[in-house]
Write a structure and sequence with these properties.
This protein has about 525 residues and is an alpha/beta fold. Helices cover about 55% and strands about 10% of the residues. It folds into two domains: about 1-235, P-loop containing nucleotide triphosphate hydrolases (Rossmann fold, 3-Layer(aba) Sandwich), CATH 3.40.50; about 305-525, Rossmann fold (3-Layer(aba) Sandwich), CATH 3.40.50.300. The chain has helices spanning about 15-35, 55-65, 80, 90, 110-120, 120-140, 155-165, 175-185, 185-200, 215-265, 270-275, 280-285, 305-330, 345-355, 370-375, 380-385, 405-410, 415-435, 445-460, 470-475, 480-490, 505-525, and strands at about 40-45, 70-75, 100-105, 145-150, 205-210, 335-340, 360-365, 390-395, 435-445, 500-505. The strands form two sheets. The chain has a five-stranded parallel sheet, sandwiched between helices. It has a five-stranded parallel sheet with strand order 7-8-6-9-10, with helices on both faces. The longest helix has about 55 residues, at about 215-265.
Length: about 525
């Protein structure tokens, strides 16, 4: 594989100057177009130390508008990083729409070096599978992902290390580890071949770069990056054009439908036809599932006041003790709450967190994404809020918005919400692989109970802010949400992260059930 990048190719200073002048302008033009179209770019450098990764990165920053380029290099994880899932620090640093992230010693570095020194093939291939999933997710979301593997022959590397070691100003760059790696050069090449073959895909390809001559190396990387950016721009413009044509066609069809509806209304001008309001039952449209998992829930469970007080006090004490035990074992806890509007999430969360030390937990309320959040992959904001080891984080609404409200309301395309099931399973598996205890709740009530709670909110001054026009509109889409929940449970209730369906028709029962469920799950994980 690497014979093709050990050919000794060189470019003279004069040729480099002539070609780089035009390339620089072309890269700036492409960068402006990428920014205008909101396309994020992820550039990954891997390969042999001493093959010019840092120098080439510096050249790209010189050629391009550095305001919109973010460079990240990674070392041994800090305390903050090591107390979260491995990919937390990479998700945190992903570039926003229209900007570029250049990553050195990133997600490939540790599994690559570990494999060379430990030869644990199973762990290596598992890590590469996780990496491929990560890259596919960000590419599917619209990012340009391009990867450069920088290579030089072993004798060239040896000469480079000796030259640096003998230079008083550069000798600090050469460490004992560099000499050890040189002795294992063939092992590194073998590992690199496996890595590249398993992770070079159409959406995130590897490009082998001959790194001995700086002029050749930098022009090669610059031109490959330019070509990739131009293809991404062309693809995005085609998508926008197709979207524009589709919207025009939809607008025309809607216009025709409105005209037909008006003609029918003029023809049938009876009082019933013009002024009656549809009831909730008349608004229900049958969904694809004739019976859903929510239809089979028993919502009749109730607790009397005395039993409620007794069980609540016991459950809270037990949960507080288990949360302390989790902290002592450096296990983080994530509680994810979903449910129908007015399903009692807020009241349950307050009772759940009541026995916890406020220093060690936080509640994250999720609303519509901010501009910053919208400029990233939809999972980005959830990765950012993951707790450190020993802490508890409660999400009031979650990443499942992609397959619930975004699916039903049309904020996500069919392709986006359909692939989200696998993306969410990947996200949750990474949490659990780190040792996080993940507890997912769906809190469910009947339509009649929801209507009663809506009316109560409307009549209670300090609760009126909770009730919005959107809440009323969502009632009309109850069957669509019910089917979306069924699909969600079917596709994301896994062995490591199962769903817990909570009967919330009576608030007392729901609150106790939530805390007792958390206790059972924690006891299973901490024993």
């Amino acid at each position: 594989m690497f014979e093709t990048v050990e050919l000794g190719r060189e470019i003279s200073k004069q040729e480099f100057k002539e070609r780089s002048t035009k390339l620089r302008q072309d890269l700036l033009d492409a960068q402006r177009e990428m920014r205008r179209l909101g396309i994020p770019t992820v550039v990954v450098f891997g390969g042999v130390d001493g093959a010019g990764k840092s120098e080439t990165t510096g050249r790209l920053l010189e050629w391009m508008d550095a305001r919109w380029v973010k460079t990240r290099a990674y070392d041994v994880p800090s305390d903050e990083e090591s107390q979260r899932p491995d990919f937390w620090r990479y998700w945190r640093d992903l570039p926003a729409a229209g900007t570029m992230g250049v990553f050195l010693s990133a997600w490939y570095s540790r599994p690559f070096v570990d494999f060379v020194y430990n030869q644990d093939e199973g762990a290596f291939y598992e890590a590469l599978t996780v990496i491929s999933t990560f890259e596919r997710m960000i590419a599917d979301d619209g990012a340009l992902v391009i990867k450069f593997w920088m290579h030089i022959p072993s004798d060239t590397l040896e000469r480079t290390l000796k030259r640096l070691a003998n230079d008083e100003l550069q000798s600090w760059r050469v460490t004992k580890k560099d000499w050890d790696n040189l002795k294992r050069f063939d092992d590194f090449v073998n590992a690199a071949e496996h890595l590249i073959m398993r992770t070079s895909t159409g959406r995130s390809p590897w490009h082998l770069i001959e790194g001995a001559d700086g002029n050749y190396r930098e022009l090669k990387v610059g031109n490959l990056l330019l070509d990739a950016m131009r293809r991404a721009i062309e693809e995005k413009e085609k998508q926008l054009l197709a979207q524009e044509v589709w919207e025009e066609e939809l607008e025309r069809k809607n216009g025709d439908a409105k005209k037909k509806k008006k003609k029918k209304k003029d023809k049938d001008n009876s009082p019933a036809g013009s002024s009656s309001r549809l009831s909730d039952s008349e608004l229900i449209v049958p969904g694809p599932h004739s019976t859903t998992i929510l239809d089979k829930m028993d919502l009749s469970a109730k607790l009397g006041r005395d039993e409620y007080d007794e069980r609540l006090e016991a459950a809270q004490a037990r949960f507080g003790h288990l949360a302390l035990k989790a902290r002592q074992q450096n296990r983080s806890v994530v509680c994810a709450f979903e449910g129908v509007d007015a399903g009692g999430k807020g009241g349950a969360i307050r009772r759940l967190t009541s026995p916890l030390n406020p220093k060690f937990y936080q509640v994250i309320p999720i609303a519509a994404p901010t501009d910053e959040e919208f400029a990233h992959h939809y999972l980005w904001r959830f990765w950012r809020h993951l707790p450190r080891d020993g802490r508890v984080t409660v999400f009031d609404r979650t990443w499942y918005g992609r397959v619930l409200v975004e699916r039903v309301e049309g904020f996500a395309s069919k392709a986006e919400w359909r692939r989200a099931y696998n993306e969410i399973n990947y996200f949750e598996s990474e949490l659990c692989r780190h040792g996080t205890v993940l507890i997912k709740y769906w809190m469910h009530i009947s339509q009649d109970e929801q209507l009663a709670r809506f009316n109560a909110r409307a009549e209670t001054p300090h609760k009126q802010w909770k009730l919005t026009d959107e809440d009323w509109r969502n009632r009309e889409k109850w069957p669509l949400y019910k089917n979306a929940v069924h699909d969600m449970v079917e596709r994301t209730s896994t062995a490591v992260a199962p769903w817990h369906l909570v009967s919330a028709e009576q608030k007392r029962f729901a609150r106790v059930s939530v805390i007792e469920t958390a206790c059972r799950v924690l006891e299973d994980h901490l024993s």
